C-alpha cells in the first residue's frame, strides 16, 4: 500500500511541474522489410479464421491497387515482396472506387470484412482511414440495394432428424464411434468446430453417479498429463461399472464438464466451460458414448504401445469421403506418430488415414482437423449442412423447446442476445406465428 501511495504522490508531483510520462509507441518497435512481415502484424491477436480473412482481404486490395498504379499484375510471391506502404494507403475516392469493384465480386458480408482489414492496416501504419460517414454510408446503402445484405445461414436440422442420423451409427467400430462423439458433442455442446478440434482428453471432467454417490474425475488415456491440484483420475473399474449399469438403467445419471482453453472469442486462454448431460435414451447419450470412445482409445494405445503392430478389427465409413465404402480391414497403429507421450496432451478426437492395404485404416494420434469435422457432418447429414449446422441447430432447437436466451448463451458463450437471434433459424415458421393466438381469441 505504501508503494502505491508513493507512486501516486510521485505522479502528482510530476503533473504539477508540467512533466508528463512518455506514451509508448508500440508500432515503433515493428520493422517491415517485406509484405510477409506486415501480414504477420496484421494477423496478430486475431482468431485463426479472422487472421486468414484479413490476410487475403489485404492481398485482394494490393492486387487491385498494384495493377491500378503500375499497370502490371502483383507478383505471386507477395510475402517476399519489399514492403511499400504507399500500396496500402488510400484516399476517399479510391475507397469508393474499390468498394464498387468488390460489389461485383463479393457478398455484402465479405465486403465488410475486406474494409475491416484495410481499416486495421491503416491503424497499424498510423494513417487515418478515409471513412466519411455520409459518403460511405450512401455507397454502402447503394451496394446493399444492388446485391442484397442477407448472409447465408448454416442450415439447422430438427431434433428428430438428428436422432435418426445418430441412431444409425455403430459405436462398436472406432471410426463411427468417433463420429458419433463428434456429432453428439458438437450439437449438445454447441461447439464451434475449432473448439471441438482443440479439446484434449484432460479437458473432460466427468461426474458419474453410482449407488447415490457422485464420482468426479478424468479418464486416463495414453501418457497422462499432470492434473491440477485436487483433481484425480477415475478408476477404470468404476467407469466400467457405470457403463454396465447405465446401459441397462436409464435413471443412472452422468454429466460432463468440458473445458475450452481457447476459442474465437477467447484468445487469451481464459477457461470457458460447456456442460453436457446424460440422455435416458442411451443411443443418444453423449456421456456414455464419449466414455466408450475413450475406452477404445485407451485399449488401443495399451495394445499398440510404442511398437508398430497393434491391431483392431473394425468396419465403417472412410472419414472425409462423400460416399460409403465397404467394410474396412485391420485398423493399425501409425508407426510415424505412435502413442502420445512425454506429458503432451492427448487429443479427444484423432485422425484416421488410409493404410497401404486396400480398405485398411490407420489410427494416428494426430489431432482431428477442422476440415474433417466439416466433412463428417456432411457425410451423415448431406451437402446442404455444415459443421456450423451443429451449433445453429442447438440454438434453434433450444429456443423452439423453450430454453431462455441466458441458458443458451451459457453454452454457446455468445456475448449478446442479438447473436442468439441471428443464429435462430426456424425452418417451419407455422408453429410460431402470433396470428394463431389472435385467431383463438376472436
Question: What order do the helices and strands come in, and which of them pair?
Answer:
Blueprint: H1 2-16, H2 35-43, H3 48-70, H4 92-103, H5 108-124, H6 133-147, H7 159-167, H8 174-188, H9 193-198, E1 204-210, E2 213-217, H10 236-248, E3 254-260, E4 272-277, H11 286-304, E5 311-313, E6 330-333, E7 350-354, E8 361-367, H12 370-381, H13 388-400, H14 405-412, H15 417-423, H16 435-441
Parallel strand pairs: 6-8
Antiparallel strand pairs: 1-2, 1-3, 3-4, 5-6, 7-8
How does this model look, in words?
The chain contains 16 helices and eight strands. It has 442 residues and is of the alpha+beta class. The strands form two sheets. Strands 2-1-3-4 form a four-stranded antiparallel beta sheet. A four-stranded mixed beta sheet has the order 5-6-8-7, covered by helices on one side. A hairpin with a 6-residue loop joins strand 7 and strand 8. Helix 4 runs parallel beside helix 6, helix 8 packs antiparallel against helix 11 and helix 8 packs across helix 13. The longest helix is centred in the N-terminal third of the chain and has 23 residues.
Q: How many strands?
A: 8
What fraction strand? Answer: 5-15%
The oligomeric state of the chains shown is single chain
* Low-confidence regions: 1-22, 304-343
Strand-pairing-aware structural class: alpha+beta
Based on Cα principal axes, name the global outline.
elongated
**SSE topology string:** HHHHHHHHHEEHEEHEEEEHHHHH
Report the sheet with the most strands, covering strand number, pairing sense and barrel closure. Answer: 4 strands, antiparallel
Enumerate the strands of the largest sheet in spatial order, edge to edge or round the barrel: 2-1-3-4
Task: Please work out how many helical segments DSSP would assign.
Answer: 16
Evaluate the radius of gyration. Answer: 27 Å
- Measured as a percent range, the helix fraction is 40-55%
Q: Taking all residues together, what is the mean pLDDT?
A: 77
What is the straight-line distance between the termini? 71 Å
